Amino acid sequence: MLRSRAFRPVLIVSVVLTLLGFGVTPTSAATPISVSTAIGRQDGSTATVSGYVVGQPTATSTVVRSNFPNDYALALADSASQTSTSSMLYVQITSAFRSSYGLRSNPGLVGQKITVTGTLGAYFSHAGLTNTTAFSGGGSSDPGPDPGDYYAGTEGKTGSALKAALHTIISDQTKLSYDQVWNALKDTDQDPANTNNVILLYSGRSQSKSTNGGDPNDWNREHVWAKSHGDFGTATGPGTDIHHLRPEDVSVNAARGNLDFDNGGSAVSECSGCTVDSDSFAPRAAVRGDVARMILYMAVRYEGDDGFANLEPNNSVNNGSAPYIGKLSVLKAWAAADPPDTFEKRRNEVIYTTYQHNRNPFIDHPEWITSIWP
Length: 374
Hints:
single chain; alpha+beta; 4-stranded mixed beta sheet; 17 strands; globular; disordered N terminus; Endonuclease-I; Endonuclease I; nuclease; hydrolase activity
């Protein structure tokens, strides 16, 4: 009975406080919140936050994505492609987690989604999560935002009906001039490990953004669908569509020329893993799927109804100036062997949100390739 008498007042006080709005049960940190929510809730409470690792904060407005100085901090964002520090949460990595989540020891975490529990409060005089007590995740890459209703109207469609529906959707785009392409490519093809550089498509070399031009070892604007295949040149339209325009070394670009794509051939200077012969070119294996998806995007986007040629893939090489590119069977095999990666997904998203406002459907839905071209 003594225990009952001692407990009853505490129970009554608890009920009264709860009724008055003063809950005595600690706030649960089990349900993760977004980075944007965490940034807006810097109130000293405990929270669990999920986001993508985008680098290491080294100052209030500085986050580095390579050459990490230590294992003490990381920055989270709601998108792996985020570059604005105002949209990042600075996370303190306490000593128990530095060997597993510190970026100097684990640089491969950049671009990965993790979940962290800690105290919502300033870190580096910036919105932060400090005194961290739990980390998890790090095994999945950012798939890119769900396009939501972007593909509305494709439901249940296959073959030519699907192709027609996609053509209508992706033809709604903002068009760039050929000069505007330079700056766009510096963004879309930015090296995630060095924001001063771009990644060259075929060769894979990381090169300074400022070295664009026409001199040897500069990078220039490669038309993956060769502009002579359909004779569209560099006029606004297919000639400036950055879904298939990529940075490439001037000499490697020249080695590819307007060749079709196929396996085989001899090694290409300055392009490790690339091969070329008299009628075809093959890029390094890591981007063969990217090339295929760009070619197939062009075939859906340009159907001859906007003053340009009807572009189509075929199973031939030596297509010359005809509005065709091959080899379709090889391109399909490349797409299957090299599915979309984080770099390609980010590129698609940047083009959609910042530049052309249309998407490459075969990055979002690789399965549509065999539906349209069985």
